């Protein structure tokens, strides 16, 4: 029996990269996609890295051709590619709006659609969702589309025993913050306001994805696993 196979979109840094490293260490054959620094990612040599823009259907087709050629089929599809464009409605232009929906929603939808023939019976699909609230109307709308999409697909794919779930990271120390001009010291300081007292790390989310991919989660579908250190938890009234 061959080792399980995983495709991770947005897998060249942050949560995607940490998940690739974890799954590889547990015996998975892994392929990741990304648009930045794909030539020098720092992943193990036998992790296949393919350049693919999540908003481009031809790029998605190319990536899945590589899956077909090198992995054959998939046990896990981790739909992690996404962007954040925080800002109020007044400062959101058409390009930012289109990027939010094209990458976070369109890319997720069509990657899964095109990957369906490659998903083994009993495979796991995991969306990265996360919070949009408080970051602006456009990103809230884009992120808000993903959970109902995930739940609809969990029901639609249940006859094939394909499980569809989501992870929603809270404050996770990833390169996304530096791209937004936030210093590591600021991110670390924010962590003091988290109920568990620290900022999260990509490996924290990777463990949740690995659980959802495993046989231990064989009866779990349509769920959103929140990895936030307690942020957003409200005591029952």
Instruction: Give the CATH level 1 class.
Output: Alpha Beta
Helix content bin: 25-40%
* CATH fold topology: Rossmann fold
Distance linking N and C termini:
51 Å
Mean pLDDT, to the nearest integer, reads: 92
Q: List the total number of helices.
A: 8
Oligomer: single chain
Order of helices and strands: EHEEHEHEHHEHHHE
Low-pLDDT segments, ≥5 res: none
Can you walk me through this structure?
The protein is α/β, with parallel strands linked by helices. The protein has one domain (about 5-225): Rossmann fold (3-Layer(aba) Sandwich), CATH 3.40.50.720. Helix content is about 40%, strand content about 20%. It is built from 8 helices and 7 strands. It has helices spanning about 15-25, 55-70, 95-115, 135-145, 145-155, 175-180, 185-190, 200-215, and strands at about 5-10, 30-35, 50, 75-80, 120-130, 165-170, 225. A 7-stranded parallel sheet has the order 3-2-1-4-5-6-7, with helices on both faces. α1 packs across α8 and α2 (about 55-70) runs parallel beside α3. The longest helix is centred in the middle third of the chain and has 22 residues, at about 95-115. The model has no long low-confidence stretch (mean pLDDT about 90).
Write the layout of secondary structure elements.
Layout: E1 5-9, H1 14-25, E2 29-34, E3 48-51, H2 57-70, E4 74-79, H3 94-115, E5 119-128, H4 137-144, H5 146-157, E6 163-169, H6 175-179, H7 184-190, H8 202-213, E7 224-227
Parallel strand pairs: 1-2, 1-4, 2-3, 4-5, 5-6, 6-7
Helix pairs in contact: 1-8, 2-3, 3-4
């Amino acid at each position: 029996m061959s080792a399980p196979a995983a495709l991770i979109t947005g897998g060249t840094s942050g949560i995607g990269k940490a998940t690739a490293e974890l799954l590889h260490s547990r015996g998975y054959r892994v392929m990741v996609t990304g648009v930045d620094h794909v030539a020098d990612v720092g992943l193990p040599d036998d992790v296949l890295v393919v350049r693919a823009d999540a908003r481009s259907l031809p790029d998605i087709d190319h990536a899945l051709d590589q899956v077909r050629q090198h992995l054959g089929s998939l046990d896990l599809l981790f739909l992690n590619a996404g962007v954040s464009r925080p800002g109020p409605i007044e400062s959101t232009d058409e390009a930012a709006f289109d990027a939010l929906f094209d990458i976070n929603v369109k890319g997720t939808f069509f990657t899964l659609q095109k990957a369906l023939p490659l998903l083994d019976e009993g495979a796991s699909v995991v969306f990265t969702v996360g919070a949009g609230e408080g970051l602006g109307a456009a990103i809230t709308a884009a992120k808000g589309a993903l959970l109902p999409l995930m739940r609809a697909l969990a029901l639609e794919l249940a006859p094939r025993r394909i499980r569809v779930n989501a992870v929603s990271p809270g404050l996770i120390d990833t390169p996304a913050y530096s791209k937004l001009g936030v210093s590591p010291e600021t991110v670390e300081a924010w962590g003091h306001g988290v109920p568990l007292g620290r900022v999260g790390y990509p490996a924290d989310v990777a463990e949740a994805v690995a659980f959802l991919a495993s046989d231990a989660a064989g009866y779990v579908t349509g769920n959103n696993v929140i990895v936030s250190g307690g942020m957003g938890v409200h005591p029952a009234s």
